[in-house]
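[09:14] KT: can someone run the structure on this one? pasting the chain below
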Amino acid sequence: MPAVIEGVDRRTKLSTIFLDVLVTEEVDLPGKVTRYPVEDGTEISDNINIEMETIRLGGNIALVDAAALESGAGEEAGSKMVDVIEALRKLRKDRALITCSTGMMVYTDYAIESLRATRSNGDGGAWLAIEAELVKVEKVQLQTAEVPERAQGSAAGRTGQTNKPAGRANSSSAA
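[09:31] RB: done, structure tokens below
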């Protein structure tokens, strides 16, 4: 069981959007294994490609609080829903890498592959269900190197010929 760190916000957060209820959290760690025979003694890891990690989060956002539900206030729900949908649109439009936290895990440097928001009348329209699919973006450090002097020489005389006739093909038509 993970230790509780005081002062750390354990609420589920999709970038800037807080989810009131986390329903699902899926982590997909895909890879691609060769479909060809591997020579005995060969480094097997060379034949397995690790693909980008994907997470799927599903949760709910309460559009109204309990007091508003009792009073029948629907305006608050509409306003909050518009705010959440606009925040989701902004996340998508910005195309920025985001961080998500679920209380137990923190996912950094993820790109949004898909976002879905659903409100239904089955729950009185008081909840907005959010589904997000995010893909890990691996960052690399660009490095430059000096070209060795022996590789800087002329390529004259080391290349193939160009504009050389390739010959003709004879074609015969079948009768």
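[09:33] KT: thanks! The CA atoms of residues 53 and 154 lie 45 Å apart.
[09:34] RB: yep, looked fine to me
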